[in-house]
Amino acid sequence: MTMMNTELYIDGRWTAGTTEIENWNPSDVSDLIGLYSQASADQLDEALAAARRAQPIWWAAGIQKRHDVLMGIGTELMARAAEIGRIVAREEGKPLAEGTGEVYRAGQFFTYFAAEVLRNQGDLAESVRPGVEIDVRREPVGVVAIVSPWNFPVATPAWKIAPALAFGNAVVWKPANLTPASAVALTEVIARQDIPAGLFNLVTGPGRDVGQRLVESRDVDAISFTGSVPVGRGIAASAVTNMTKVQMEMGSKNPMIVMDDADLDLAVGHAAGAAFGGTGQKCTAASRLIVHSAIHDAFVEKLVVAAQAYKVGHALDEGTQIGPVVSESQLTQNMDYVTLAQQEGAELLYGGTRLDRPTEGYFMAPTVFAGTRNDMRINREEMFAPITCVIKADSYDQALTIANDSEFGLTAGIMTRSLSRASHFRANMRAGCVMVNLPTAGTDYHVPFGGRGASSFGPREQGRYAAEFYTTVKTAYVAAGTPE
């Protein structure tokens, strides 16, 4: 299996970087996917200058052109979902079905925002002054820097790139170094469209060098970032110097409350899926399961059975439900959390071990801890691992208090048959997305996504709310002419 390209894409051309990195398959560490270019500071500056030149050309091309380009990108991604999804699975480690689904969803982001291009309408307002007309409309913010993570290497950049282009902006994209093949595949689809040279640029490289220079650049008008809280805080500090607009999605510690009146089998299925799906490497994963004491023991017993039933294996193997952890360093961090949990007094009920498979990879058993408290580090810090922790609660009020006791607030869920509890939870859970009788993971592409507290900063992503970040509002006052 080979890639068509391993290069950077700058000013409408594929070009080699100054250095290269090795890209290995986490399901089989003997499988070298390729050597991928790393950009120099000069190449990043070239990309920024090209984006600055291309942006007004793209804006002037008009809404039909932008619609057609985005529709073309989205249609190709959906048609090639299985092919590109295989690249995602091979390099990131998620099962093939999940990789395919991710690419298809990325296509839907582009087709959705293709339609939004045609709906980008302004407003007319009456002035308090006679003889004055007011026109309010949205214009592009300019050059957008996109910094994306490795866990959704096609979908996350898609939901940033699509609105950026839809609203007339130029893009300089720095993806995570762990998933360069997916970035190249998405870029090849975008590059095939009839767009101005420099409108879209792929610049790979380490965050400490290329990423930092990107977010500090005065040629950047807006920064959209998804990643960790420490990196996000650093980006915000860098951006404020230039008064650059910032949108950030960061950490999470998502709770799922399971009440004594819940459908137990449904609750276990949703909890396990949200905790272990994608090897737990989702910002929406359910890592805190807050379970009513009346059903606690029965729930935990069934949860362990569910964890044991998952098939952990090579991402490309048929039947694999949980792929490998993305890298050796991530696996080491996961195992450190297992040790920490036991040191804090948590009871390991299942998992917590590295698994041997026919190929050497970073495989880890789904892991269940019980007897945990909300003040333990394993319940305060985002682990990004197939690990979930059960916390016992004696009432709904106590469960809600525990759920809200976090610096994060991305997603949260409740399993209950009670309409009054569900309604109260929706109103009082301090999270950006709340789920009732659903997993905490899984959101739609046409509605806003984001959190509260340390989880998010700036305007929401996705849906019509994306316009708040990718555009700036202009209010025009015009004196009406006097009839001759």
Q: Could you explain the architecture of this structure?
A:
This protein is of the alpha/beta class and 484 residues long. 38% of the residues lie in helices and 23% in strands. It has a 7-stranded mixed sheet, sandwiched between helices. The radius of gyration is 24 Å and the shape is globular.
Mean of pLDDT: 95
Sheet with the most strands, sense and barrel status: 7 strands, mixed
Straight-line distance between termini:
74 Å
Shape: globular
Q: Within the largest sheet, what's the order of strands?
A: 14-15-16-13-12-18-19
Task: Provide a compact summary of the structure.
The chain is an alpha/beta fold and 484 residues long. The protein contains 14 helices and 22 strands. The protein has two domains: 8-250 and 455-476, Aldehyde Dehydrogenase, Chain A, domain 1; 254-436, Aldehyde Dehydrogenase, Chain A, domain 2, CATH 3.40.309.10.
SSE topology:
Layout: E1 8-10, E2 13-15, E3 19-25, E4 28-38, H1 41-60, H2 63-79, H3 81-92, H4 96-118, E5 123-126, E6 132-140, E7 143-147, H5 155-166, E8 170-174, H6 180-191, E9 200-202, H7 207-216, E10 222-226, H8 229-241, E11 245-249, E12 254-258, H9 264-276, E13 286-292, H10 296-309, H11 328-343, E14 347-350, E15 367-370, E16 387-393, H12 396-404, E17 408-409, E18 411-415, H13 419-428, E19 433-436, E20 452-453, E21 456-457, H14 467-470, E22 471-479
Parallel strand pairs: 7-8, 7-10, 8-9, 10-11, 12-13, 12-18, 13-16, 15-16, 18-19
Antiparallel strand pairs: 1-2, 3-4, 5-6, 6-22, 11-21, 14-15, 17-20
Helix pairs in contact: 2-4, 3-4, 3-6, 4-5, 9-10
